[in-house]
Design a protein that fits this description.
The complex is a heterodimer of chains A (about 325) and B (about 375).
Chain A lengths: L1 H27 L5 H11 L6 H10 L6 H13 L5 E2 L4 E2 H36 L4 H15 L2 H16 L18 H38 L2 H8 L4 H7 L1 H11 L1 H18 L5 H10 L3 H29 L1 H4 L7
Helix pairs in contact in A: 1-14, 5-6, 5-8, 5-12, 6-8, 7-8, 7-12, 8-11, 8-12, 11-14, 12-13, 12-14, 13-14
Chain B lengths: L1 H11 L17 H11 L1 H18 L1 H4 L20 E5 L5 E14 L6 E24 L3 E10 L18 H37 L1 H15 L3 H10 L7 H32 L2 H8 L4 H37 L11 H6 L4 H6 L5 H24 L5
Antiparallel strand pairs in B: 1-2, 2-3, 3-4
Helix pairs in contact in B: 2-13, 3-5, 3-13, 5-6, 5-8, 5-10, 6-8, 7-8, 8-10, 9-10, 10-13
The chains are: A mainly alpha (about 325), B alpha+beta (about 375).
């Protein structure tokens, strides 16, 4: 297990390094270096900027040094928690992070939990009662979950709530709790608002999870050991829950690896449509105004989150499945 | 197993021996088997017809569109959809078949003091087939101004799906958007197919360090949240690029992350086929690598590639839609489904003009149909498997 853990950690570090290169390339992509364009934008809107500030910035990001040195300076800053400064919002990136990261994580984790909590019972039901009305219903809903883009679902939900029930479901807090300290009231207010984004984010992933679990379980249900257990007189319900479901869940754990990128991607779009106070609208604004250092830090951050999630899922899988732990499956 | 299939195939064949090829009576080619298997998938067949209809709309968008999709009509902003009526009743109470719609009148909403358009049943606008309208080029080649249908008098309003903020006709815009959105999906998949087959093929055929590097790269790309990364790449485009250039760069960006799945499929097939006897035989016979690949291996899994590609198209379309919706993909005046939905971002706009969501319906139908066709192809791709 230790060996596996070490190998896994080394892979993750290398992946992170690769990601940082990709992000740095993205930062460098817009034509011209960004301080020049920043100055151009400022003077375009009639503001002036102190030459001293420009010099500090050039120094800080080593703008005049070769590209590798620039990359190194940037990476070193990232590692020290100096994420840079958002020119758009006139705030340190670290501060923007700390204000919003909690909400982002809460919404995403909640979506993952809901996804699993909904998908597992539906998947088991669909497999055990294959071709029943409920199974067909789940399949049809699942297909729609895959075909309806998140933002469209959010828009339709928004429209229905507004026109039929007179409720606006944008945001995560009512105006009076927007900037308040956490309290029971604020928490209850949060719960009243959070269902909509969670519903939207969870839908597509749920559909896929149901499909995977249903297919796995259908394979398992026809195996002789199920028949043996039944023949020995075990109750059908107990047999299913105790043996085939456990086996069928196994590949499902490994799906966390792709569930997380999907969740982060879809929460991104959803948060923008529903105007949530998460990191996503910040990233969109940063990208639209080509505030590339902020955008880069955010993308790197989302990537790190995904990788930590994948690591956790891999460790879980190794813990459940000895074949992986011993390097028989995951090794190649 | 093969023999049972052959007898089955023989039983289904018509007596006419002209359809029978080869020395063994009753052998069907792999493609014939695939086509037959596909036809058995009812949803896939229906979906295929729907997609053909979509493709027809895309190709003849200009001809089908009753109005100029780009023409701003400030007099008709957020005009609601007009119902289409077929049976006309004149003053004498006689019935006749004459398609028409009703005109609009302006009312002022008492609370918001806002101008709104309401349907006015006293004004009838008759429709005609093959009317003259705005100029366009059919198939991009032949200049024409004939449209399938339109109002009898050219200046009358005709908004079957309503109009947008600038009074542009949603139906015409939707038709034009179908062309762009579908083509983004197809061009994007062709590009990813190129990367995927090249890289996956090399990795699968030669193995070794190149395979290892490819595998790691694919794993890496698949572990990233795609939408933020796509957006970052798209946002780096200079804003003064021409729409056509933006279009190609966007499809390139989409395929840059989309080739991984195809490469995985191709690599898997190459690995599976590499050890087949007939491949070894061809190699020992002195055939060049490229000949072995193109002549002996690729035909064995073309159907798998087609399947994987067809399942990748809806993903591309959804991605383009999301990017454009967020304002980082295609930009107006180019019209795609995502660009159209951008108009519907605001809840207040949605409440006044819910018909702006119509492109969303088109997306859902197209993506569902593509998924079903892909499913049908997947089942049919390997007609020998049971």
């Amino acid at each position: 297990m230790t060996l596996y853990l070490v190998r896994r950690l080394v892979t993750m570090l290398l992946t992170l390094l690769a990601l940082s290169v990709v992000v740095f390339v993205v930062i460098q992509l817009p034509p011209g270096d960004f301080i020049t364009s920043y100055i151009a934008r400022l003077s375009g809107s009639g503001e002036t900027i102190d030459q001293a500030v420009i010099d500090t910035l050039r120094e800080r990001y080593q703008m005049d040094a070769p590209i590798l040195a620039q990359y190194w300076a940037w990476l070193k800053g990232m590692l020290h928690g100096e994420f840079g400064y958002s020119f758009e919002m006139k705030l340190p990136v670290a501060q923007i992070f700390s204000e919003r990261i909690g909400i982002s994580l809460a919404v995403e984790l909640l979506a993952v939990v809901v996804m699993w909590a909904v998908a597992i019972p539906i998947g088991i039901y669909s497999a055990v009662r294959q071709y029943s009305i409920g199974d067909y219903f789940a399949t049809v809903i699942g297909f729609f979950g895959l075909a309806v883009p998140n933002f469209l679902f959010a828009l339709v939900l928004m429209y229905i709530c507004y026109v039929w029930f007179g409720v606006t479901i944008t945001g995560l807090f009512s105006p009076e709790y927007m900037n308040a300290k956490w309290s029971l009231d604020r928490f209850l207010d949060f719960v009243q608002h959070v269902w909509a984004p969670v519903l939207v984010i969870a839908t597509a992933g749920t559909a896929q999870l149901v499909r995977v679990l249903r297919a796995n379980l259908l394979d398992e249900l026809n195996k002789p050991y199920v028949l043996t257990a039944r023949a020995k007189g075990l109750e059908k319900r107990k047999v299913i829950m105790r043996y085939p479901v456990r086996v069928a869940m196994n590949p499902l754990v490994s799906t966390i690896g792709w569930v997380l990128p999907t969740v982060i991607s879809s929460s991104f779009v959803t948060a923008i449509v529903l105007n949530l106070p998460t990191l996503s609208p910040i990233l969109l604004r940063a990208l639209l105004s080509q505030d590339m250092y902020l955008a880069g830090a955010l993308i790197l951050f989302m990537g790190v989150l995904t990788m930590i999630g994948t690591l956790i899922s891999d460790l879980l899988l190794a813990w459940i499945d000895p074949r992986i732990r011993l390097g028989m499956v995951g090794a190649n | 197993m093969n023999s049972t299939i052959m007898t089955e195939a023989a039983a289904d064949l018509p007596e006419d021996s002209s359809t029978v090829r080869g020395t063994l009576a009753g052998t069907e080619s792999q493609w014939q088997l695939i086509r037959r298997r596909f036809r058995q998938h009812r949803m896939a067949r229906v979906s295929l017809y729907i997609l053909i209809l979509f493709a027809f709309c895309a190709v003849f968008a200009n001809f089908l569109a009753p109005k100029d999709p780009l023409k701003v009509q400030a007099r008709y902003t957020y005009a609601p959809p007009q119902g289409l009526h077929f049976i006309d009743r004149d003053e004498n109470g006689d019935w006749s078949f004459r398609p028409h719609v009703y005109g609009y009148k302006v009312e002022v909403e008492p609370e918001a003091l806002r101008r709104v358009f309401v349907i006015d049943p006293s004004k009838k606008i008759y429709l005609n087939w093959f009317v003259e309208g705005h100029e366009y080029k059919l198939l991009g080649l032949f200049p024409s101004n004939i449209h399938l249908f339109g109002p009898e008098r050219k200046r009358d309003p005709l908004y079957l799906l309503g109009s947008d903020r600038l009074g542009r006709d949603m139906l015409s815009r939707l038709l034009l958007g179908t062309r762009i959105s579908l083509s983004v999906g197809i061009v994007g998949v062709v590009l990813s197919l190129f990367f995927g087959v090249l890289i996956g093929g090399l990795a699968g055929f030669y193995g070794g360090w190149f395979d290892a590097v490819t595998q790691r790269t694919i794993e890496f790309l698949r572990s990233l949240p795609t939408i933020p990364l796509w957006m970052a790449l798209a946002s780096a485009m200079p804003s003064d690029w021409s729409p056509l250039r933006v279009y190609f760069v966007i499809t390139l960006i989409l395929s840059l992350l989309g080739w991984t799945e195809l490469a995985r499929v191709v690599r898997g097939r190459f690995l599976a086929l590499k050890d087949e006897d007939y491949v070894a035989a061809a190699l020992y016979d002195g055939a060049s690598h490229i000949r072995v690949v193109m002549r002996h291996m690729v035909p064995a899994f073309t159907s798998h590639i087609i399947t994987a590609a067809s399942l990748a198209i809806p993903g591309m379309i959804l991605a383009e839609t999301a990017l454009s919706f967020l304002g980082l993909g295609l930009q107006s005046p180019v019209v795609s489904w995502g660009v159209l939905l951008q108009e519907a971002q605001n809840i207040r706009v949605l409440a006044t003009a819910p018909w702006l969501l119509a492109p969303g319906l088109a997306i859902v139908i197209a993506v569902l149909a593509m998924n079903f066709v892909g499913d049908g192809l997947r089942d049919a791709a390997d007609p020998y498997a049971r």
